[in-house]
Amino acid sequence: MAKVLKLGTNEDIAEVIQMIKASREREIVLDTEKGSPILLNSANLRLVRKTAEVLGKSVQLKTNDATGKILAVKAGMALVGGEEIGEEIVVPGTRPVSQNPKTVRVGGLSDLRRTRRTPVRRTTPQIPVKKEAPIFTKVPGIEAFKKMIPGGQQSAPTTVAKPFAAKQQSEGRLKNFAGNYSKAIMLGVVALVVIVFALVVLLPQAEIIVYARSEPITRDLEIAVDRTAKSVDSGKLVIPGEIITKELSDTKTFQTSGVKQIGDKAAGTVRIYNFTKNTLTLKASTTTLLINGKKYYFTKDATGIRPTATIGQGEEQEVDQSSLTAAIPIVAEVAGEPYNLSANQKFEIVNAALGISQNVYAINEVPLTGGTTKTINILSQADVDRAVTEMTDHLATLAEEELAQDPSSAGKKVLPTGSNKEILAKTANKNVGDEAKEFDMTIIGRLTGLAYNEDSVESVMLDRINAVLSEDRYLLENGKRDITARFKTIDLPKGVGVLSVHFETVVAYRVITGDLSNALEGKTASEIKEILLTKPEIDRVDVNFSPFFVNKAPRFNGKIYIKTQLSQG
User: Fold this and answer.
1) In this model, does residue 529 exceed pLDDT 70?
2) Residue 55 pLDDT more than 70?
3) Contact, 464 vs 218, CB < 8 A?
4) 134-137: long-range contacts (C-beta < 8 A, 24 or more apart)?
5) Which of 348, 418, 524, 545 can bridge 487 by disulfide, Cβ–Cβ 3.0-4.6 Å?
6) What is the pLDDT of residues 291-332, one digit of tens each?
């Protein structure tokens, strides 16, 4: 079913084209009100029709504007309902000519025609002019004057004719001046015509830069690397390979990640309360004092701990301080401020022989103090292992660098996934546990790998892309080409492997500009962009007119210069 697009008097040609592009239907009907901008001339309708054809759509016009129907027929656009339009329109105010009327353009509407009557030639009647006698004969009394001068029959006429001769000379000069003035005017007119012709026809030119669209393209292939292959075979996806063995050494500097808390341990004394019936001895090596998850130790053995006595009865009963042994020094397990304690804290006592007893405990009568903390970086075993692993993987890169320095092996690639690495020796300039922010690691290793030439991989990928690339696109010769490869399988003893390759490059669209100039003659910059941007291969358009007063592409001198560049967007 056809899609009906209703167009009022506000939608211009660019908006109509965007509506056609956005429509998903293949058949479109433009229901257009009288006065719509697209009905101004047939070029608008022709552009709409051609745009629809490029998009694979058909478009018809529905309107009650008689002039718009005529323009649609002239533009080759179908009318809804198959309405027929006559070949000729008679402009109101003129009378049709009965036979073979001539057609002329109607000012302001170049697509319509009207009849014109053959003009009637009018002639001006000739009025006979009566010839007058020479001025000399009109002078009154000339004959009497002749008789008054004896012998003056010859001189009298000459004397009388001099004023008239002067008048004739003056009239001649006036005629010459008028003639020269007319010539000057004619030369000025001719010069003005030449200048106007040059400004209107010869000088105007348009420079149009068309930016061809480009886009990335990727391919993923599996290519066999075989040391027995002699050359690249794009059809079979096979490239030559080579087994190489290199002994390599390398030294690199790494940062340490190990940390260690250092500082002073908290210390103090405790009194032991023994509510058993036995005298106890607590060894420093087998006794631990616990409080809130922190551990403390005796600095010497606690011996002769007598049972603790009490005095008083009932609620008034209390410990007999004289029955307690002397205070015993203790120290925290590790350094740090958290091990500092206030006075009168109760410690559990854990002893290898005694176990944990509720009847034996310790209390510090004075605070435990002196605990401080400082964090330092040390070399850990994890730092050493990480450095060895990284440098082992780097052996393949070292092998490539050595191959690049050899002219006979230039361009060869060795991958970590396509090689075996063996560490022959390793050493660090620091010992594990030493305070250090960085350390140097040196290794000596042997690498055996299946090498290949990366240019061979690129050649295969380009051949495969070109084989399926459409004619309107082409690979950029200097475009970026990124190759990511890893061996999916490898058999080093046989010298074969399967390389998994991801390839990225750029393709550009071809823009044919040979037949565009005729379509752009007389068009404004916005119209030129609208026409060219309907082509899917064009990304954007720049239009420049010269001289400065020109606002349309020239019609007559052919100075429309179209350049094609690759869009960088």
Assistant:
1) yes
2) yes
3) no
4) 135/164, 136/160, 136/161, 136/164
5) 418
6) 999 999 999 999 999 999 988 887 788 888 888 989 999 999
Yes or no: say if 440 and 428 are a contact pair by the CB < 8 Å rule.
yes
Instruction: Please count the other Cβ atoms lying within 10 Å of the Cβ belonging to residue 95.
Output: 9
- Tokens at 203, concatenated: 């000088």
For residue 547, whether the previous peptide bond is cis, meaning omega lies within 30 degrees of 0, is yes
pLDDT recorded at residue 416:
87
Does residue 334 belong to any structural domain of this protein?
yes
- The answer to the question of residue 566 being in a domain is no
What the block records as the tokens of 569 is 């967007």
- Co-location of 364 and 268 in the same domain: yes
Considering the domain architecture, whether residues 289 and 354 belong to the same structural domain is answered as yes
Domain membership flag for residue 35: yes
pLDDT at 171: 65
Of 455, 453, 484, 467, nearest in space to 225 by CA: 453
Helix axes 13-22, 42-54, angle to 10 degrees: 20
Which structural domain range is residue 55 located in?
Answer: 3-79
Q: Is 144 in the same domain as 68? A: no
Edge-first strand listing for the sheet containing 3-7? 3-7, 27-32, 58-63, 78-79
Mean pLDDT of 55-71: 89
End-of-domain residue from the set 149, 182, 199: 199
Looking at 179, 199, 219, the residue that finishes a domain is 199
How many structural domains compose the chain?
A: 3
Calpha distance 569→566 (Å, rounded): 9
The lowest-confidence range among 100-104, 386-390, 529-533 is: 100-104
Tokens of residue 364, six digits? 């510090």
**Residue 268 or residue 122, greater confidence:** 268
Mean pLDDT of 26-52: 88
Does residue 113 contact residue 127 with C-beta atoms inside 8 Å? no
Is residue 156 located within the same domain as residue 74? no
